[in-house]
Amino acid sequence: MERKELTEPERSNHVYGVDFKGWFNTQDGERYDSLTVSDLHSRFLLKAEALPQATTRWTMRAFRNMFREYGLPEIIRVDNGAPFASMGAGGLSRLSVWWITLGIEVQFSRPGCPQDNGSHERMHRTMKAECCRKASVHMRAQQQRFDRWRKEFNCERPHEGIGMQLPAELYQPSVRRLDESIKIPLYDLGVETRKVSQSGFIAHNKRQCFVGEAFSGMEVSVDEAQKPGLTLVCFANVKLGWLENSPNARLRPTAYAERWESKTCNNEGRS
User: Fold this and answer.
1) Average per-residue pLDDT in the chain?
2) What is the CA radius of gyration of the chain?
3) Helices H, strands E: what count in the chain?
4) Is 50 exposed, middle or buried (0-12, 13-18, 19+ CB in 10 A)?
5) Do the strands 219-227 and 230-235 form a parallel or antiparallel pair, or are they unpaired?
6) How far apart (Å, rounded) are the C-alpha atoms in residues 110 and 130?
7) CA angle 20, 23, 29 (to 5 degrees)
8) Residue 108, C-beta contacts closer than 8 angstroms, at least 6 positions apart
């Protein structure tokens, strides 16, 4: 995965911090995972939701509801865990691919560096202490507790990081509304693309090459002009990897091009 420099938020809906604060049990034995989303500029907590599971399905459903209420951000910042990221091409998951199709940039924090989402992590510690240590009777009661606490956090508690103002005083809903019927162009005109099959393959040099099931039904770009003997595969502006222009090609990590060039130069030197 190519890790981009993290963006410093400058306005509402510029950068959202997203994470799960682990899982907990209610008194009746139900397990829940705590999904949280905050606007990193205003510190406004957009979502604190108890989900039955931290899966793509449940998380995507929660985000759809949130986007309908508040609109879309420019950037979402997440860690490298599921369902936000994967071990596949570009580190993208089905969830982060969906965000990109909505015109949202996805930024991944550095592994083992919670300070990359510092204000969000501090909010997590407070939320856990005040909402999660004592088990609620059931899931509905836990969600009611989250809702009360989120309102207090946004509307009644001044925050030092924003000059002792209230998050609700600074935050404004996004003007970018959720409309999944509008297909945002991911590539410039003239860029060569390949449709990814439902099983995650694209056609390359008369063969089927696997790029990842996270991209099923999507189009990826292919560029043979950047490196001799290699084809660069991208999803939107995310580099997924390189394909050798050979019958046995498979997708290689983005750093592979440097090793390929070194190997090619060495072979030419010996010829």
Assistant:
1) 89
2) 22
3) 6, 11
4) buried
5) antiparallel
6) 28
7) 150
8) 1, 3, 77, 78, 79, 80, 84, 85, 91
Single out the residue of 213, 209, 214 nearest to residue 194, CA to CA: 209
Residue-wise pLDDT tens digits, 87-137: 999 999 999 999 999 999 999 987 777 777 778 888 888 888 898 888 899
* Beta strand segments in the chain, E: 15-25, 31-39, 45-51, 75-78, 105-108, 193-195, 201-204, 207-210, 219-227, 230-235, 238-244
Across residues 180-205, what is the average pLDDT?
Answer: 94
| pTM of the complete model | 0.89
- pLDDT band at residue 239 using 50, 70 and 90 as cut-offs: very high
Going along the chain from its start, the domains and CATH numbers come out as 15-170 (3.30.420.10), 193-270 (no CATH)
Length of the chain counted residue by residue = 271
Cα dihedral angle (171, 173, 176, 182), rounded to 10 degrees?
A: 140
User: 48 by DSSP, 3-state: which?
Assistant: strand
φ and ψ at residue 55, rounded to 5 degrees: -105, 165
**Token pair listed for 36:** 């949280």
Collapsed DSSP state (helix, strand, coil) of residue 32: strand
- Tell me the residue type at 102: L
Hey, is 14 helix, strand or coil?
Answer: coil
